[in-house]
Amino acid sequence: MSTIVGLTGQSGAGKTLISEVFERNGFGVINCDHIAREVTSAGSECNRELAIYFPACFDEELVLDRKALGQIVFADREKLDKLNSIIFRYIRKAIDDRIEELGRCYEFILLDAPTLFEAGADKQCDIIVAVTADEKLRLKRVTERDGIDEASAAKRFASQLSTEFFEAHSDCVINNSGSREESELRAEQIIDIIKEGKIGSK
C-alpha cells in the first residue's frame, strides 16, 4: 500500500515549488487544483448542483465563471461554506479514484491540496507537510500571480486557516520565505525522512 503525503498550506506560500521537488524524487502527484477544475468542468454534475445556489456564476451551458464565484464566496463565509460542502464531495471521490490509480505504480503519493483540512482529505493521508510564508511575501505573490488587488487577496487570506493551525496539525512545516534553494533543501530533507520511514502513519 502506498504512503500518502498531504501537501497543504497558505495561498502564496509556494506549494508548487515544493510539489515539484517531491515529483522529482519519485512521488506520484495528485494536484487537487486540477481535480477541482475537472469536477467543475462545463456541464458537470457538480456544476449543476452549484448552479442552484450560485446561478449568477454560470451561463446556459453551465460554464463556471470562477472569478465571479471567488468574489462572492471570499466575501461571505456562509456562502464559502456552502460552496465547500458541495464541491468537496466531488473532489474527495476523484481523489480516491486517483489514489487507487497511482497506487499501482508508486510507493509514495503526494496529495497537493490547498484545502486539505477543509475538505477532510487529511484523513486520507499518512503524513502531512505544510508550506507557510510571511504574509507580506504571500500577498505580493498572489497579487502578481492571480492579477488581483491587495484587498481581494486579503479577503482570501482571511477565509483560510492560520499559520498556527498548519504548524499544529502538520508533521512537517516548510517556511518558504527564504531562497528557493533553502526551501528545496528542506523539502529534500523531509523526503529522505519519509522514505526512511522515520515519520509514522497518523
Describe it for me?
The protein has one domain: P-loop containing nucleotide triphosphate hydrolases (Rossmann fold, 3-Layer(aba) Sandwich). With 202 residues, it is an alpha/beta fold. The two termini are 15 Å apart. It has a 5-stranded parallel β-sheet, sandwiched between helices. It has helices at residues 15-24, 32-39, 45-53, 66-73, 77-102, 135-146, 150-158, 163-169, 180-195, and strands at 3-9, 28-31, 108-112, 127-132, 172-175. It is 52% helix and 13% strand.
Chain-averaged pLDDT: 93
Q: Can you name the CATH architecture? A: 3-Layer(aba) Sandwich
Radius of gyration: 17 Å
End-to-end separation in angstroms reads 15 Å
Cross-sheet strand order for the largest sheet: 2-3-1-4-5
The CATH class is Alpha Beta
Short description:
The protein is α/β, with parallel strands linked by helices and 202 residues long. Helix content is 52%, strand content 13%. The mean pLDDT is 93.
Write the layout of secondary structure elements.
Layout: E1 3-9, H1 15-24, E2 28-31, H2 32-39, H3 45-53, H4 66-73, H5 77-102, E3 108-112, E4 127-132, H6 135-146, H7 150-158, H8 163-169, E5 172-175, H9 180-195
Parallel strand pairs: 1-3, 1-4, 2-3, 4-5
Helix pairs in contact: 1-9, 2-5, 3-5
